[in-house]
From TrEMBL:
Protein family (similarity comment): Belongs to the TRM6/GCD10 family.
Extent of Polar residues compositional bias: 299-308
Subcellular location: Nucleus
Annotated source species: Cynoglossus semilaevis (Tongue sole)
Location of region: Disordered: 73-95, 267-327, 437-461
Protein name (Swiss-Prot/TrEMBL): tRNA (adenine(58)-N(1))-methyltransferase non-catalytic subunit TRM6
Skewed-composition ranges (Basic and acidic residues): 79-95, 267-284, 310-327, 449-461
Function of the molecule: Substrate-binding subunit of tRNA (adenine-N1-)-methyltransferase, which catalyzes the formation of N1-methyladenine at position 58 (m1A58) in initiator methionyl-tRNA.
Entry keywords, A to Z: Nucleus, tRNA processing
Length: 461
């Protein structure tokens, strides 16, 4: 292990860090904890030995523990190999490999590492030396993927987590691809010190990407549906504590009340709920023992049980009051930020229909501010486009789709990959403008200039 100086401490793996494990094209987000068993790609291991190493280090799994790989062990197994000129005379009949499956299992039981097993496969292949250099590299890469038990530990970032979700659980993020997410952040002009509204149902990935771009400066207001905000993806970023101080949440169901000025963040509603809960607890309270019970010991025990139940009920009520007070405080803080209607940007990426959400949240933006709406399908955004055109107050409306193709970039064999993502969704973007309230919002034909009318009259005469 290298010297763990303070200069590069932020680039080294520490206990409690959120990291991303990478093996081939597969990613998994975990937290570094001592003696915690991790299961990744049908293998289990502990991450204790990774503490203190630099991020992007490669480790080999040996008997459930991680062993750091050096530069020598990561070299190709085919250095200075003998290669053929073409593959025309090679027949894939399954008889070229002398080692059987049982032989390979025996090598594993003897403790041979993945690289040593690959070397044995190369030496026992009758057609390996007849293959071209490109075919040999492809063969070795395929065997490494199967037999080498190596993983790389990465520092979480917006791009890595977006690739992880899109590769493993695309439905959780509404099939939002990472290049589409990058376009959304750019079109919304996300930067440090701004006030941004986010409405998303992408497991917190979009929210985390916005917070990462802002760097802990400014304000992020998450508009959430249902009982509470979903932030599973935000936790995977592993942000410092001061990042969460800039994060606020506001229920989408209270937007109309806030716009109408009827939102009440006082104690009235909560006190009513607490009184109802107290009445319900009193109704569910068990009946007391009769006073003329013949057994004093039973009465004494019953009294102690009632005292313990009263104490427990008081503690629950205190916790409930503290939680309700904290919720009221957060709601009031978020409402205070929204009441100014001076937000700098809006991002919507949801499985719900975006049109009513967009028309409601646009009212919180200042003039000349960008907004971006993502949808997996085009039709909801077409409806939003038409609605915005009719309503007015926006300019530079653009509805686009995104397309991405991966390329293999290798010496003398650069070409597009055969498999690629079919679609990256659709993006509606635009800019808000101030609307003159004295004029109707609908589109009215402009009056012709006086000079033009005079010229037309002369022509008629």
């Amino acid at each position: 292990m290298a010297d763990t100086g303070e200069g590069d401490s932020e680039y080294r793996i520490k206990e409690g860090d959120n990291v991303v494990l990478k093996r081939g094209d597969i990613f998994k987000a975990v937290q570094i904890q001592l003696k915690k068993k991790i299961i990744f790609e049908k293998q289990w291991f502990f991450l204790d030995n990774a503490i203190g190493h630099l991020y992007r280090s490669t480790f080999e799994i040996v008997s459930g523990n991680l062993q750091a790989q050096t530069a020598k062990t990561t070299q190709s197994s085919s250095d200075a190999k003998e290669a053929g000129t073409d593959n025309r005379n090679i027949v894939d009949d399954g008889k070229s490999q002398k080692l059987t499956r049982d032989d390979i299992e025996t090598l594993k039981e003897q403790g041979l590492k993945g690289q040593e097993i690959i070397q044995q496969l190369i030496e026992n292949s009758s057609t390996f030396r007849d293959k071209t250099e490109f075919a040999q590299d492809k063969y070795i890469k395929k065997k490494k993927k199967k037999y080498e038990n190596t993983i790389m530990i990465l520092k979480p970032s917006c791009r890595i987590l977006a690739m992880m979700y899109h590769g493993r659980e695309p439905g959780k993020i509404c099939h939002l691809r990472y290049d589409t997410l990058a376009q959304m952040l750019t079109l919304a002009n996300i930067h440090a010190g701004s006030k941004v509204l986010v409405f998303e149902t992408c497991a917190g990935l979009v929210l985390g990407a916005v917070m990462e771009r802002m760097g802990g400066y400014g304000s992020v207001i998450q508009m959430y549906p249902g009982g509470g905000p979903a932030r599973a993806g935000v936790e995977n970023f592993g942000f410092p504590a001061h990042f969460h101080d800039t994060l606020h949440d506001f229920p989408i169901c209270h937007v109309n009340a806030l716009l109408a000025g009827t939102l009440d963040t006082s104690h009235k509603d909560t006190n009513k709920k607490e009184s109802d809960q107290a009445a319900e607890d009193k109704q569910n309270q068990p009946e007391a023992e009769p006073q003329d019970s013949p057994e004093e010991q039973t009465m004494e025990t019953g009294g102690n049980n009632e005292t313990a139940m009263d104490q427990e009920r008081k503690e629950k009520e205190q916790r409930r009051e503290a939680k309700a007070e904290e919720k009221r405080r957060k709601l009031a803080a978020a409402a205070a930020l929204l009441e100014g209607r001076n937000a700098d940007g809006l991002i919507i990426a949801s499985r719900f229909h975006p049109c009513p959400v967009l028309m409601g949240l646009l009212k919180f933006l200042s003039p000349s501010r960008p907004f971006v709406v993502y949808s997996q399908y085009k039709e909801p955004l077409v409806e939003c486009f038409t609605k915005l055109k009719e309503h007015g107050g926006t300019v530079n409306l653009r509805l686009t789709d995104t397309w991405l193709r991966h390329y293999q970039v290798l010496p003398n064999r650069t070409h597009p990959l055969l498999l690629m993502s079919g679609g990256g969704g659709y993006i509606l973007s635009g800019t808000t403008v101030a609307v003159d309230s004295a004029k109707p919002s609908g589109s009215t034909p402009a009056e012709e200039p006086a000079t033009k009318k005079m010229k037309l009259t002369d022509t008629v005469e």
